[in-house]
Each structure stands twice: as structure tokens, then as C-alpha cells.
Write a structure and sequence with these properties.
The chain is α/β, with parallel strands linked by helices. The protein contains eleven helices and twelve strands. Strand 1, helix 5 and strand 2 form a beta-alpha-beta unit. Helix 1 packs across helix 2, helix 1 crosses helix 3 and helix 5 (about 95-110) packs across helix 11 (about 310-325). The longest helix has 17 residues, at about 310-325. The N and C termini lie far apart (about 100 Å). The relative contact order is 0.11.
Length: about 350
């Protein structure tokens, strides 16, 4: 039988329901849940020293009242927002996606969220606008995934008093940079092909504005020159399998082309298709090496020999770098940290069809 009688005296009296225009406070939640405001604060901050039953009561009261913790007020009180901003120019490349995933995972393991700001145009105004937006969103530090050169300036415009680490840049003398050892991985790939007996190595490069593509192309050329080998004309690509296919159609017509280093695995995939269509067998007629070691590389026809780069480690080191800058008064403000690469040798490389003694040098 229904009754309008109040409950037992031991139950806390509920506060009047807040008006629609009135902000729900911690006190409202505490009164409804029958706990102290300090307990509500512990629950909202994820503090471990709260019993599960009490935590469930508080969360139920929060949901019932529509309470949302004031994260800005908490941040001001403790002096940090527990958020790292990430600026990047594209999500279309494998490297950027995997690096961003690693940054998000590493940040979460440290108790930080990330706020992502894409920059549609790689210009200094675009970067400044992204920093301004991140300032409005209140972040503690910023990671910039800077795969390409800025169109109108040589130096990344960094605002003062902002802790920043840059992934994939060539300006470690100006700010803190974390990068894969692009040159080391390329040298290992080219030497692998030369050691198999190929007289020289052709190269399908990434886009001219990409830092990674620039470093891989320079290292390819330098390795051939140091070995005293002819440097063939460079075939320009844009990271896509289609561009690798187009370049491969041209390379397939050249009977002297017996080894190709593609600047990424997607272009290597397009190259494999072009060689197959031209009737040139891989690796018996032409050896192919890629770069990245994407998860599908081992399933290419044939499985692809490639340079493995550790995107997860790049992301971890970016997060570790910005946290060190935040926490240590004398943390390094510039310099490059290189993440090592290694070759993964599969079935797309072999000695050339007829392998005369390779030139010395």
C-alpha cells in the first residue's frame, strides 16, 4: 500500500531537486547518495580508496541528477588538465595512424586523455591556429605529428611556454623530435640488395614534401654512392599502391632493373602487381624491398622483405618526452631521439637472375 510517510530518520533528507537553470552541485549528489562531498570528489576523480558499493551509490546519484564533474575547476585546483593535445596534418598514412594510436594508448596508461586537432593546410597559419585551439581547450602539452614540410616556412612556429615534442621532423636542433631511424633502415635495405649480388638498386620514393621520403631517398643515394654503384633515376610516388603500380610499369620495361627499394609497403604492393602483369617474376627476375612492415606485408604475393619501424615506440617516446618536459625543470628542450629499425627478410628478395661478381667499392 502506497504511503506518503517519510522514510526512516537515518536516511539523509534529499535536497530539493535543482531547477533546470541551476547547476547540479556535488552537494546535491552527496545528499542523494547519502555520503560526504569528499566521497563524491573521490569517485569523480577515480580515487581507488572508495568501496564498490559506495562508488555505485554515488554513480547512480550522478546519473539520476545529470551531474557532470567540473573538470576545469579540478584542473585549476591541481594545476594540470591531464590532457595532451595532438596536432597532425593527415590520417591517410599508415605511420600517422599507428603513431597516433600509440600516443593515445601511452597517454591513457599515464592517466591522460588526448585532444586531436587536424590541420587541413600545412602552413604556419594552420599550425598557429591549431595551437590557439588547443589553448582554448586547455591542454598540458602538445605532440605534433609533422610528416610534411610547411609550405611557407622552414621552422615550425611554436608558441612560448608550451611543452612540445614533434614526431617525424628534421629540426631536432630547434625542438625535441622523436623519429624512426629512416636513414639507418634505408641503408640496411639497400645493402641487403647489393649483398645479394645486384649491381644497383632502383628506388620508388614517397612525396617530395615528406620528411621521411626525403631522408629515405637521400640515404638510398648515399649508400649507392658509397658502394661505388650507379645511381638510377628516382621514380616518384605518393605513398599509395597506385603510385607504386604506375612507377612499376615503367621499371618493368627496363631489363637492367633487378632490384627495387620502395619507400613504403603500399607502393611495394603496387610494384608487385606491375611486375606480375609485365611477366617479371619476384624475386627471380626482380627483388623488392619495402619500408614499414605493415601487418599485411607477410601476406603479399610473395611475402615482402621490408624494413620494420616501431610506430608504437615512437608514440611512447613522444608521450614520455612531453611528460618529462612537464615534470622535470631541466628536461632537454631540443634534440632528436631515433627509434631503431630492423630488416624483416621474407621471400621477395633473392640474387639476380645471373649474378656476376658485384663491383667492389
Amino acid at each position: 500500500m502506497a504511503t506518503d510517510q517519510p522514510g526512516p530518520a537515518t536516511e539523509p533528507a534529499a535536497l530539493p531537486a535543482p531547477r533546470r537553470t541551476q547547476r547540479v552541485s556535488m552537494a546535491h549528489v552527496a545528499r542523494l547518495a547519502g555520503v560526504s562531498s569528499q566521497t563524491v570528489s573521490r569517485v569523480s576523480n577515480g580515487h581507488p580508496g572508495v568501496g564498490e558499493e559506495t562508488r555505485a551509490q554515488v554513480l547512480t546519484a550522478m546519473k539520476q541528477l545529470g551531474y557532470r564533474p567540473n573538470s576545469a575547476a579540478r584542473a585549476l585546483k591541481r594545476g594540470e588538465f591531464r590532457t595532451i593535445g595532438v596536432i597532425l596534418f593527415t590520417l591517410a598514412t599508415t605511420g600517422n595512424i599507428r603513431t597516433l594510436e600509440a600516443i593515445a594508448t601511452s597517454a591513457a596508461s599515464e592517466g591522460y586523455a588526448i585532444t586531436l586537432i587536424p590541420v587541413t593546410a600545412p602552413t604556419q597559419d594552420g599550425v598557429r591556429g591549431a595551437f590557439t585551439r588547443l589553448g582554448e581547450l586547455a591542454v598540458d602539452a602538445v605532440i605534433v605529428i609533422m610528416e610534411v614540410t610547411l609550405a611557407d616556412v622552414d621552422v615550425l612556429p611554436l608558441p612560448p611556454h608550451v611543452q612540445v615534442v614533434v614526431a617525424d621532423s628534421n629540426a631536432g636542433d630547434r625542438y625535441s623530435v622523436v623519429d624512426t631511424d629512416q636513414a639507418g633502415g634505408t641503408r640496411e635495405a639497400v645493402r641487403h640488395l647489393l649483398d645479394l649480388g645486384h649491381r644497383t638498386v632502383w628506388h620508388i620514393s614517397g612525396p617530395a614534401e615528406s620528411f621521411a621520403a626525403q631522408r629515405r631517398a637521400r640515404a638510398w643515394r648515399a649508400t649507392l654512392e658509397e658502394a661505388g654503384r650507379e645511381v638510377p633515376p628516382l621514380a616518384a610516388g605518393d605513398w599509395s599502391a597506385e603510385s607504386g603500380y604506375r612507377a612499376g610499369l615503367l621499371l618493368a620495361r627496363n631489363p637492367e632493373c633487378t632490384a627495387v627499394f620502395a619507400a613504403n609497403d603500399q607502393m611495394a604492393l603496387g610494384l608487385l602487381r606491375a611486375l606480375h602483369e609485365a611477366g617479371r617474376s619476384v624475386p627471380h627476375d626482380v627483388s623488392v624491398v619495402g619500408f614499414d612492415d605493415i601487418p599485411e606485408a607477410g601476406s603479399f604475393p610473395p611475402p615482402l622483405t621490408t624494413v620494420h619501424q616501431d610506430f608504437a615506440e615512437v608514440g611512447r617516446r613522444c608521450v614520455a618526452g612531453v611528460l618529462r618536459k612537464m615534470r622535470e625543470e631541466h628536461a632537454p628542450e631540443r634534440g632528436t631521439t631515433l627509434v631503431p629499425t630492423h630488416m624483416v627478410i621474407r621471400h621477395s628478395t633473392a640474387p639476380p637472375p645471373t649474378a656476376p661478381p658485384a663491383p667492389t667499392g
